Amino acid sequence: xxxxxxxxxxxxxxxxxxxxxxxxxxxxxxxxxxxxxxxxxxxxxxxxxxxxxxxxxxxxxxxxxxxxxxxxxxxxxxxxxxxxxxxxxxxxxxxxxxxxxxxxxxxxxxxxxxxxxxxxxxxxxxxxxxxxxxxxxxxxxxxxxxxxxxxxxxxxxxxxxxxxxxxxxxxxxxxxxxxxxxxxxxxxxxxxxxxxxxxxxxxxxxxxxxxxxxxxxxxxxxxxxxxxxxxxxxxxxxxxxxxxxxxxxxxxxxxxxxxxxxxxxxxxxxxxxxxxxxxxxxxxxxxxxxxxxxxxxxxxxxxxxxxxxxxxxxxxxxxxxxxxxxxxxxxxxxxxxxxxxxxxxxxxxxxxxxxxxxx
Length: 359
What we know:
Helix content is 7%, strand content 42%. It is mainly beta.
């Protein structure tokens, strides 16, 4: 299977999707929605700033489609399974589960909270009531093996029509960095299939595009390791057209930089990504950027993220975002939930292409 060539440099992602240039063999298609999204208006963070002091290790923020709450995970040790919390518009925090076995929160288009729940050596997806914490299976009888410290998926993402979900898994006893792959599950039939990816790939952190055509994810070559001579040692962002099973890399290579944790923005089809400096010669840092998937060489810096962020969570309007950062309080690091707003200037910069910028 051959990789597709890069889209025309002048096209923004929105135009590229409309013209079918991300994957030239197909025109963009929109699936009819089978679940009507709830109110698409944010009620949190009209201005950038700290929303809540968490006072516990946390990751994986997920903004509800009505814009009223943000779900996140309290983690313990190095695992990604823990307790689910909800943050409201005032910053008030409420723990909704307490068994230390939940992770990977995600919201369906119609406002239902889904989480991966560990039981023994397996995990399953559960519908969690944010009011009571009660849970019931999303797909009865469907479970998956947990693996090492990566107890639950790094990301769960739903197709816009609500019919399918994508998530990552790995082999028992290993981690996502060792053997991760992305699966697609049909929620009606429970049928599971692998997402097509380049040969010898380790893939994780899937995110479904707003038009439903492609899934973006981070990819490492099998046998990778940091600071190896050559660009292939670093994590890159790829997209796969899940129907045609065609794929291509979307980020331009940057020295000593890994691209990780992609999240599609609901507005303009842009991507929120983390750029991770992995050099042993310089102090490591992670930055959140807004980039154009048709050309990642231009974009806008959103925030400098710290440990435990779990990526950028987008509000339904595509302007507001949330992330988890660490703050040093009297020599001790605590996590905080922050929110921000993408400015018109940042969005315009991300929509530019390298050619347009040069002109």
